[in-house]
Specification:
- By secondary structure, the protein is mostly helical.
- The protein folds into 2 domains: 72 residues, Rna Polymerase Sigma Factor, Chain: A (Orthogonal Bundle), CATH 1.10.1740.10; 68 residues, Arc Repressor Mutant, subunit A (Orthogonal Bundle).
- The longest helix is centred in the middle third of the chain and has 22 residues.
- The radius of gyration is 21 Å and the shape is globular.
């Protein structure tokens, strides 16, 4: 029988501490990554990259009481970086024979591409308080519907309905009309 010694702890992390962080936060981060990416494989990659980034930085940079929030911030930053990279990446066809003879110039791009963060923040403030509160807890703080229900002292179904209605109202506010004041 060959004895193996455990690997040394990662920079600044106590032995076993990082593994506990992964076990405690992996599923929550995966759910959030799925909402961000919409693809399971991309979500797993994003979660893994989030943990790699956390592993590279000493735990002093991650507050103990706000570790999940810090991981969400790291994940959000990585996701934004990936989106920016994809926008800048150019795809070159190998030959004209391989490119389809379909016109890609269909005029307008999707309306949601013209929405920026300031517009979203402005529209979130216009939501009715119960819907805004549920939406912020779910989307920005990453709480589950059961956690939101407990915090707001409502049924889980009510929490889910409030998040759904907030999203539906935001869609109307953001894409239904163009308000020049929001763009500035």
């Amino acid at each position: 029988m060959v004895e193996t010694t455990p690997p040394p702890p990662a920079r600044g992390w106590k032995a076993g501490a990082f593994e506990q962080v992964v076990r405690a936060h992996q599923q929550v981060l995966l759910r959030r990554a799925m909402r961000l990416t919409g693809d399971r494989a991309d979500a797993w990659d994003l979660v893994q990259d989030t943990f790699v980034r956390a592993l590279q930085h000493a735990p002093q940079e991650a507050p103990a009481d706000g570790l999940r929030r810090w991981l969400y911030t790291v994940m959000g930053n990585l996701h934004v970086d990936r989106c920016r990279f994809r926008l800048r990446a150019k795809v070159l066809a190998l030959s004209d024979e391989l490119t389809p003879a379909v016109s890609t110039d269909d005029g307008d791009e999707p309306a949601w591409r013209s929405v920026d963060h300031a517009q979203v923040e402005h529209c979130v403030t216009q939501l009715e308080p119960p819907f805004r509160e549920a939406f912020v807890l779910y989307e920005f703080e990453g709480l589950s519907l059961s956690d939101i229900a407990r915090k707001l002292q409502v049924a889980v179904g009510t929490a889910g309905t409030r998040v759904h209605r907030a999203r539906r109202r935001l869609r109307v506010l953001l894409l239904g009309s163009v308000d020049p004041q929001i763009a500035t």
